[in-house]
Amino acid sequence: MANIANNKVECLMLFLLTFSYVLSDRFVDGRRIGTSKLVKPKGTIKTIEGKDGDIIDCVDLYQQPAFDHPLLKNHTIQMEPSSTPSDLKVNFSPVKLIQGWHKRGQCPEATIPIVRSPKNQHLRALRHFKRSRTQLKQSLDSNDGDILSNHEYAVVSFGGENFLGSHATINIWKPIVEGNGEMSIGQIWVLAGPEEEINTLEAGWRVDSDQKSKFFIYWTSDGYQKTGCENLDCPGFVQTNKNFAIGSPLDVSVYNSKQVDIGVTIYKSNESWWLKVNDQVIGYWPQSIYNYLANSATRLDYGGEIYNAKVGGVHTKTQMGSGHFPSEGYGKASYFRHVQYMDSTGGFKDVEVGKLTVDAMKPSCYNIAVQSDRSPGSGTNFYFGGPGYSKDKCPR
What's the pTM? Predict the structure, then answer.
């Protein structure tokens, strides 16, 4: 009888362990993904698994998330902008060379690639926003744990005019990012409107705790309150390119060795704000989803951002840029080159160095240095970044 009882106990324990394992892990197409459920988008015609483990769904062009937006129900897709800006310093490397999933397949015509992502990414989205200097000062002066003070920047800003576009060639790195929802970003911002209702168009590269550098976009039309999101996680951005998966991993630079960069351009045409990566048009944000950005932008920002969770009351070790300070220079520090803006004439111009406002929130942790050299190969350029925590220079 004792043996029978023991066998029953052992069977019960095995069942409970198996049941808990099933509950703690989910599977999509035979792939275990932990507690985050990956959701196949509607309109999926073909699925490709990239070499990095990402799942790419080829979605019908007319069933993409953008058309769930109430203002885009009867929207007519624009496949190309009506005009191409002049004097744009673009990188002509084909976009397919910077995304590894192309080695596993291609999306058919009349579809767009969407990276399959967890259904609920609200926390990550909430931790991404562009603060104003006034908001930043208020958060630093308070002791209420305001999430604003957890964002740290090393950026340059250009304002005082009406802008129809922004461009920069951004050096791509894979900085170390700690857990706790932290992130490290290199991007451009196109902005308009008052602080509490800021409208933004954003694009660049981003590293989260998965330690992968990925291309991303972001937008909001109400100061990051109820509108906007990252990538194609909500209706808004209309993608037209079948070769570039927003949110897919990028090739990255190596310290004191090969350098990888990507040209990012946002400009106004066809009553929409168009996004280009290198020389390829990716898609657009219709001006109808904006109020302050419906006509033009009033400020352009370029540079880096990190989120500091302040675990244990000390500064994070999350790096910005390459993880090295600007003083180390080319091949070691992360750079922006060909910082340009588009004016009402429809042409791109180099931003004058003297008109850039430099803003390094904690220069002993992350800094930025605008370069006086404006050679044809670099244009207006700067280095940015840093290692984060150090006991003597960046303790908190």
Answer: 0.86
